[in-house]
Specification:
This protein is of the alpha+beta class and about 250 residues long. The chain folds into two domains: about 60 residues, Winged helix-like DNA-binding domain superfamily/Winged helix DNA-binding domain (Arc Repressor Mutant, subunit A); about 170 residues, Beta-Lactamase (2-Layer Sandwich), CATH 3.30.450.40. The chain is about 45% helix and about 20% strand. The protein contains nine helices and eight strands.
């Protein structure tokens, strides 16, 4: 809950932001009453603001509540982290998909989650739960583990205390994951084995810019038993191409 928004003197902007912030991965659809409660706003105020946001396209009304509208997604795609990185990486993601026919992910860290900037998949790809613009746990995904391994030490310690189990194979022991994160830095890639979705394994590598890891590139496949070496090689080639484009600021020909 946002807090303080029901206090007299709270600005319209603060109340509007509180309403939008009421949505998260666990609450993608909310009724008016739920929005009022989570934003800490009187029902009448929430009703008025929600109507205005709906008219503007920031929210969309459905038969059982409100969801984030297309207008907000359009605005979100203008953020530099998405427009620059996603645009420059796009040709390499398509090349990687063409060479593997696997689901390809491009992600960045957003606090203790991985934010998926792009995803490419086809009919032969392994079904995944990720969507462009969605967030998933760092510790249970390939791209997320890469980002967590290279995160500041304080954030890594915080993440190790919040290891929720997603499947029976999700690593939830802090010491075990800590060793794996150290190995990821040493090896230069991360793997998962059905930790986010049953029947789906992943491998991912870092993308660097100005000597810092700014994103992660990964693929999801049914198994890594035979093709891990080939996939790591393909990922590294694509990652290096993205890094060169980031340095020069031009797209891949």
């Amino acid at each position: 809950m946002a807090g303080n928004t029901s206090v007299p003197g709270a600005t319209v902007v603060a109340r509007t932001i509180a309403l939008l912030a009421a949505f998260d991965e666990a609450h993608p659809r909310l009724t008016l009453t739920e929005l009022s409660h989570r934003a800490d706003l009187p029902l009448t105020t929430a009703h008025r603001l929600v109507n205005e946001l709906t008219k503007a396209g920031a929210l969309t009304r459905t038969s059982n509540g409100y969801v984030v509208g297309q207008r907000l997604w359009q605005l979100g795609t203008l953020a530099p982290v998405q427009t620059d990185l996603r645009r420059l990486a796009s040709p390499f993601l398509h090349d990687l998909y063409a060479g593997t026919l696997a689901t390809v992910h491009l992600g960045v860290r957003d606090k203790l989650k991985v934010l998926y900037l792009d995803r490419i998949s086809g009919q032969r790809s392994v079904p995944v739960v990720s969507e462009i613009g969605s967030h998933l746990p760092l510790h249970a995904t390939g791209v997320g583990k890469v980002l967590l391994a290279h995160a500041p030490e304080a954030l890594r310690r915080e993440a190790l205390q919040k290891l929720d189990r997603v499947t029976a194979y999700t690593i939830t022991q802090p010491a075990q994951l800590a060793k794996q994160l150290d190995r990821i830095i040493e090896d230069g890639y991360a793997t998962t084995y059905e930790e986010m979705s049953l029947g789906a394994c992943s491998v991912a590598v870092p993308i660097r810019h100005n000597e810092s890891v700014v994103a992660s590139l990964g693929v999801v496949v049914p198994s890594l038993k035979r093709d891990k070496v080939r996939l790591v090689s393909a990922l590294r080639v694509a990652a290096h191409g993205i890094e060169r484009s980031l340095s020069s600021g031009v797209t891949h020909p």
